[in-house]
Amino acid sequence: MTESSNTAETAHAADHIDESDIATLRERIVRLEWDQFQRTNNEGGRAACQGNWPVFHQMRLAQFLTWDRPLLESYADDLAEADRVGRNLVTEKYGRMMASTAPDEYARNIEPYIPRLSEGRVARQERVIATQVAWARDFRARYPRLGEAMRVLTTSEDTPTATSFETYLRGELGTYSDRTFALYEAMIAGRAAQSGGRGANITEETLLHTVRLGGFSDLDEAETAQVA
């Protein structure tokens, strides 16, 4: 065996180990979120989705499959630190969404008890959100049946019982540490700069992972399978 083939095999083995480590990290994050989700109290009692691990796992893993290792590691640290200090990021995420869906209750019972975001952080988040809403709108135009199965798109469409993609994203980003958000922001900027400035649509990437985890080969197959 030549030295070059030895080197190639070593590099391949290292890549395999690294990908295995990343896969384990993704699964750990999904489990940490699930455990916090189980401790989230809902008005009216436990929600049905809190007992549906397979769907939760599919939806959350699909998102984390689009993230690189530094972002995954930073968010895992956020979740672990939250557990250490008695903070629940999943509960906080849903609470932040209520700024739109139940503003009076949010102002009275939630806003005083969660970390306040600086004006600068909010402005940066809104730029990220605008990019992702545009990507989601583009995806829905090209895959209308899959789009119909998604959340409504914008905060203006929120109701007390329906939370939009935009509002959900705003709630989630608000729970990230400064380090995690900076890494996430850089990821979105990097994707937006791809394809000659047209951007690499992270909504499409996430939904592709979602349908593959659900047993479809690609988005076209999943779109065709949806009931018209």
From TrEMBL:
Domain of life where this protein originates: Bacteria
InterPro entries membership: DUF4125 (IPR025191)
Listed name of the protein: DUF4125 domain-containing protein
Organism, scientific name: Bifidobacterium stellenboschense
